[in-house]
Amino acid sequence: MIYYIKPWIYPIILAIEMVFACIIPYLKSTHDGDVEKDFPYISDTGNKGISASAFSLLFNIYGFLAFVNITIRFEQIKVNYSYQKSRPRYIVNIIATVAGLVSLSGMALVSTFQVGTHDGLHNTGAALAFGVGVSYLAMQSLFSFFLKDIPGSNIIINITRLVMSILQFAFLLGSFIVTLQYKQSNSDLSIKRQAAIQEWILAFLVSFYFLTFIPEFRHYDWRIQLDETNIKSNKVDINSDSIYNVDSK
């Protein structure tokens, strides 16, 4: 039996999941009076009661979906350099993917250890999720300019990724600086609000970045063949004169 999976769907699901993961805990925590309705930190919306459980569940789901997207991107680039026999692309692809997986480990820490109870682990996870995650996407942005032969790739997409990466670094640095100012200001709420707003913008910039993969993912299918003895996963470029297959048993 053969199943066909459309990879371009997963960036959309990931973006939608981020909206749910941020908004649902926020609505519940503000309804219960756990946080102010003004901009709190994302983590502050998920550290009490049902909000904490929803925060953990939704961000764990988000982490899994991000893993799927990172894997698809890895396989897509792998098909390209396998066809061209490019070792530099192989090395960069491995490094970028490892960075992506490290950022996901940070996401797991953030979702599992809530702020207020395990601040050290939570903050470590946030640093990995945002810091390394933004670095992973920056590598993808730079990599895009060297992958012009990937079906669906074009200069507009590449420039969009580069601009989004620059904005991500700007908001990451800005959020870090303003957070330090907040800690040194005897808890000035106006400064905290500025840091929280930048964190929210950064989170959505990171998630919506994956939407730029859709034009390229649309040119690929994952074919999963099931039989009695093994499982084979094949990716096929269906819009090219050359067909690339990646098999794993």
Please, could you describe this protein's structure?
The protein has 249 residues and is mostly helical. Helices cover 67% and strands 7% of the residues. The protein has helices at residues 9-32, 49-84, 87-112, 119-144, 155-183, 189-209, 214-217; strands spanning 2-5, 220-226, 231-237. Strands 1-2-3 form a three-stranded antiparallel beta sheet, covered by helices on one side. Strand 2 (220-226) and strand 3 form a beta hairpin. Helix 1 (9-32) runs antiparallel to helix 6 and helix 3 (87-112) runs antiparallel to helix 4. The longest helix has 36 residues, at 49-84. The radius of gyration is 20 Å and the shape is globular. The protein starts with a strand and ends in a 12-residue tail after the last strand. Mean pLDDT is 84; it is low at 233-249.
Q: What is the strand and helix layout of this fold?
A:
Layout: E1 2-5, H1 9-32, H2 49-84, H3 87-112, H4 119-144, H5 155-183, H6 189-209, H7 214-217, E2 220-226, E3 231-237
Antiparallel strand pairs: 1-2, 2-3
Calculate Rg over CA atoms.
20 Å
Distance N to C terminus: 16 Å
- List segments where confidence is low: pLDDT < 50 over at least 5 consecutive residues: 233-249
Looking across the biggest beta sheet, what order are the strands in? 1-2-3
Number of strands: 3
Fraction in helix: 55-70%
- Find the structural class using helix and strand composition: mainly alpha
Strand fraction equals 5-15%
- Broad shape: globular
User: What's the overall average pLDDT, rounded?
Assistant: 84
- Oligomer description: single chain
- N to C succession of SSEs: EHHHHHHHEE
Number of helices: 7
Largest sheet properties:
3 strands, antiparallel
